[in-house]
């Protein structure tokens, strides 16, 4: 099993999955790390990894470097969890974007941590606000800010940074899609004194615009198919290009690991 030990200030171990580091720790421990960092307004960023993200890192060295610099890389997709188990992390469970958001919204008030929601569209954020106020009445929403699809100007970017700073947020949930949100978080580390977490398409799901796959489908690693049925035009190319490559690279890694263990 290929392991990377992170320096003492980030007490975690990572497994190399098809070339990229993924954090080995149960869901609750990963949430604890995020909340601990947020309590001290530490500038950190969290990548929520799935098959698409790891294949992007395989294709693009500059994106791999972003994952390598991340303070936490959670295993979102079940294929990553299965791969980690096969590599020795027997007790690893899934640490998915929506579950991270829900757990943070539940626990943040207990530690007086404010949460900022960044990205998506104003209408989606407004629907989220209404549901959040019902589901988590104690949650302190530091702010909600939609972002345009185009790159921000320097002045616009500075305004966003200032707004987050003035809000007192300890956690910023970033919904810009992969890999845009990961590049954004990496560029803003040290500029934003909060934990930024890339949550991809979580906002429309929580707002009720898209549906989440049933639990049995998530457990069997079929959430991708459920999403594909809902958004075929946007997702078919992603899945047909990333999944075969991930399977090939994963098998190659496991076979190489098995051969090395027999020597």
From TrEMBL:
InterPro entries: WecG_TagA_CpsF. Pfam families: Glyco_tran_WecG. The keyword Glycosyltransferase applies. One of its GO terms (molecular function) is hexosyltransferase activity. The keyword Cell membrane does not apply. It comes from the Bacteria. Transmembrane segments: none annotated. Keywords: Glycosyltransferase, Transferase. This is WecB/TagA/CpsF family glycosyltransferase. It comes from Scytonema millei VB511283.
């Amino acid at each position: 099993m290929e392991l990377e030990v992170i320096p003492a200030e980030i007490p975690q171990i990572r497994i190399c999955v098809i070339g990229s580091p993924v954090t080995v720790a149960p869901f609750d421990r990963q949430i604890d790390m995020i909340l601990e960092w947020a309590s001290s307004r530490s500038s950190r960023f969290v990548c929520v990894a799935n098959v698409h993200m790891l294949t992007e890192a395989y294709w693009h060295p500059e994106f791999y470097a972003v994952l390598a610099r991340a303070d936490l890389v959670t295993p979102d997709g079940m294929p990553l969890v299965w791969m980690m188990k096969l590599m020795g992390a027997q007790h690893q469970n899934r640490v998915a974007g929506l579950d991270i958001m829900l757990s943070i919204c539940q626990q943040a008030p207990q530690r007086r941590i404010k949460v900022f929601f960044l990205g998506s569209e104003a209408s989606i954020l407004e629907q989220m606000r209404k549901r959040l106020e019902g589901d988590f009445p104690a949650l302190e929403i530091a702010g909600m800010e939609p972002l345009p699809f185009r790159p921000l100007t320097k002045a616009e970017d500075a305004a966003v940074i200032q707004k987050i700073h003035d809000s007192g947020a300890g956690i910023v949930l970033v919904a810009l899609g992969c890999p845009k949100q990961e590049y954004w978080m990496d560029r803003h580390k040290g500029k934003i004194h909060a934990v930024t977490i890339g949550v991809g398409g979580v906002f429309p799901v929580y707002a009720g615009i898209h549906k989440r796959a049933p639990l049995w489908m998530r457990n069997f690693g079929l959430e991708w198919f459920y999403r594909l049925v809902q958004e075929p035009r946007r997702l078919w190319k992603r899945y047909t290009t990333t999944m075969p490559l991930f399977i090939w690279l994963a098998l190659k890694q496991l076979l190489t690991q098995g051969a090395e263990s027999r020597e």
